[in-house]
UniProtKB/TrEMBL annotation:
One of its GO terms (biological process) is carbohydrate metabolic process. It comes from the Bacteria. It comes from Clostridium manihotivorum. This is Cellobiose phosphorylase. The lineage of its organism: Bacteria, Bacillati, Bacillota, Clostridia, Eubacteriales. InterPro entries: 6-hairpin_glycosidase_sf, 6hp_glycosidase-like_sf. Gene3D superfamilies: 1.50.10.10.
Amino acid sequence: MAVKYSFNEDKQFIIEDYDRAKTFASFLPGVAGIDGIPMWAYYVNRGQGLGSFGVKDKNNTIMEFFPAHLMYKNVELQGFRTFIKYNGQVHEIFSSASTDVVKRKMYIEKNLLKVEEVNDSLKLKVTVTYFTVPKESYAGLIRKVKLENLDKQEKTIEILDGLTQVLPYGISNGDYQAMANLMKSWFDVFNLENNIAYYKVRATTSDSAEVGEVNKGNFFLAFSSEEEGLIKPIIDMDLIFGANTSLTRAVNFEAETLDSIYSKKQIPENKVSGGFLAKEVILKNEVTLCSVYGHIASLELISSIKDRFNISYVETKEKEARLLAEELVEETYTKTSSHIFDEYINQCYMDNILRGGYPLVFEAGEKNHVYHVFSRKHGDLEREYNFFSLEPAYYSQGNGNFRDVNQNRRNDVLINPKVKEFNVKQFMDLIQADGYNPLSVKGSYFTFDKEKLTDILALAVDNNKGLVDIFSEKFTPGKLINYISDNEIKLNITKDEFVKTVLQHSTQGFEAEFGEGYWTDHWTYNMDLIENYLNIYPDKLQEFLFERKDYRFFDSAVRVLPRSEKYVLASGKVRQYDAIVEDEEKCHKLNISINDTNWLKKSNGLGEVYETNLYGKLISLAVNKFVNLDPMGIGIEMEANKPGWNDAMNGLPGIFGSSVNEAAELLRVINFIIEASESFDKTVEIYVEVAELINQVEALVDDNLCEKLSDFNYWDKVSDLKESYRDKIRFGIQGKEKGFGTRALSVIFRKFKVKLTKGLEKALEIGNGIYPTYMTYEAEEYEVIEGKRNPVNGYENVLVKKFKYVPIPLFLEAPARMLKSIKDKDQARELYEKIKQSKIYDSKLKMYKTSEPLDDTTYEIGRARAFTAGWLERESIFLHMEYKYLLGLLKAGLYEQYFEDIKTALVPFMDPKVYGRSTLENSSFIASSVNPDEAVHGRGFVSRLTGSTSEMLSMWFMMMAGKKVFSYEAGKLKLELKPILPHWMFDSSNEVSFKFLGNILVTYHNKNRKNTFGDNCTVVERICLKDSENQVYKIKGGIVEGQYAELVREGSIKNIDVYMI
């Protein structure tokens, strides 16, 4: 059988002969519902698929974690195994060493994996189905093995099925891989007499005076469709494999019967145990064998629920697992002429949730609580460098990096309008007074209003003291429900209702910590959140900007050094190394830690937390970024140890790199400030330190624009102002404010815009019609500062008197970002054509690479230069950036170009034989045609959890609904759906449907099957709205106004039919 890829009506992606196909790694989503405990599970297309699984992170693995390239090698022996003895001969199902005549398939679903072997030699079909257990008090993986007899002859077979290695709870993956021989001294398996194997270490393994007993454990149990009760587990692998320590053959099983094996004593201690079921089966038609591998809080708990484990339970849980996934993606339902595109959108939404979280909205008076569940810091077999973490709790949430979480929440409000400005508030709060932000964004927590304690305790029958303890400190819904479940507390209402009631009387907070370094790009994603909020709530602009005065500033214990301390002489070259330091004096003075969530305070750090409105925060952010323009006034300086989005350009800060990408984004912010400032005539209060900076910078901009100050001298003086400002806010701010008129600020920011635009025009000229993404500089004139050295590396400090621009190759990122701000369609088209003709474009694959060739560039730019060409961030098709560029084409109005490009650049339209994995799933990057290995050209690597999902959802929303859906004119809310769809996306009924705002089914009826854009496009003739009570509202033309638009936005309308001519 040859390798073949297909997609069927059951939404399954199928790979025939999967174990001979191009290798890939992926994962089950690890979603158990808000009322379940999630388990992570990774799989590959070798062996029996499942490669590693566990709870929380790598340090709580049940099946050993390996990076992908090692998993491809190891999974067949260390993974799941199935041995069948028939007529005295042992056959290993799914083995690459098997000489049987077989056909194999892999079926991939959103929340389920299935592998199948049709064994013609045995006349057997073996199907293995995996899914993680939803809605339970334990984290579990169910493995269902179905044996089907393919001929009329009754067969008596003996089967051994299971896992050769089940690690006990209490041992980290790292310790096991480094010191397995020592670690197994702690290993033990308990409870075999009750047919549930319970794996744990006997005590903590750290070399410490504090030693504790371990109660939590991993478990294995099995049962069949043939009889009631649990099957006795085999955990001693010596009983199966004997002296064959390579595990290549089950030599004892080859020589002995199952009864003989069962009669031998199993040794559970001081060895690495496995978990197998053993069964003799008289096979007439079919038999199902099930195993559950999991993690649970105690042996008593698994013993108390053992009676529920039977075939009916597995069937129920399998349905629940499928339904859970489908319910999650209902909000992005799409129906076009391309079924795989429709399902691809759902998969993008699912994967977007896994990184950004799914927003649950709890009503709590005027301000709803938004609590993101199912998120985690991403990592997998191909991303082994990331220490992933998936909270093993009800209402599971996880930590993430600022950029990742921010990006993947971009579309929340477009899909669930009840989210409102929650994400804007959270991520704008995390912007510091110097314009930077912490890296690590932690989950939300709640603080309970103690005045309501008596009322809440009355809802618990036991009135448990433990609840009092929980409500006395910060808590999460998961912690609360875990406690109720673990302690079997009875409630007068359901757990869901109890959580909702508690949160109604609680205040929400969130935490973050510095992490490492300050990236130049993180702040840029906030503008996406702002624009999307206003796309749904344009009538709330004044309230949004000015009336909510509880925006704060994160205050980090890490500061950026001034030039006099970070510009150094290293090996005879002037460089910018170790530009940030932990501010120990600040930590001591304010009694804070680098790991704390700290907020900017008045009275120079000793007073109350300073609060302002969103407008004030944007003013502070914009001026802080504006004073970071480089010596030529073109890019935003990488002055704080880290680059921007492309982490592999990590050397750029050292060689005085700057980013045109962030200059493009600053232009967006300044344009927004100008427009908002001219829309209102208000006086706003700005904290005096930044107010003074604004006025001082304005004076220097005036001098620079009239050429009294050269670009270098302007940069030098502005940098002095910036450093002086940072000194003033180092410990906090005074708390005094200065009033500014919005019209006056508009005048100032128009000047800033002129300066910024001149720099971007200069950049376009330097790039010969393509915006360069990065600028780098070399110190031409400098002097050593006598007696001064960098506090971190000890290099001598220098004073730079003149810089020289040093060009590096062009990248895709700056054009992708600039397209969002280019209003002139002809200018955008010209930029597009230039890129298409450049070496950024991969003409073989018809896709866009990260950059031109880097061969002639210094290795100092970063690890990207050292990577193989066409691999990772070096000249590959990095899907996130290519999608950002495609989204830019849509925003710039280049619709024809966009729809031509997506035929080869969007994953669902790619050839899976080339892509090498499911074309429902994104990859981080696709190896480009400059890679020296032609076999990998066009092949996707590093699965799914990327920013590309967010870019795709943004494209999807724009394609389906239009650029700007709601507007507010003359005191009236208006809705205008203006889809951007080509004729070929309409189905055989000339229709396209999608869910608008998460729950409204919109159907476009295009009877003439025309494009909805361009010349001779469709025109909306009429619209029909239908509410939940089937009341129909008919509207002529394409605009829904007033109360009807409000009914749509609030979710009272369930169907919208748009008729086009």
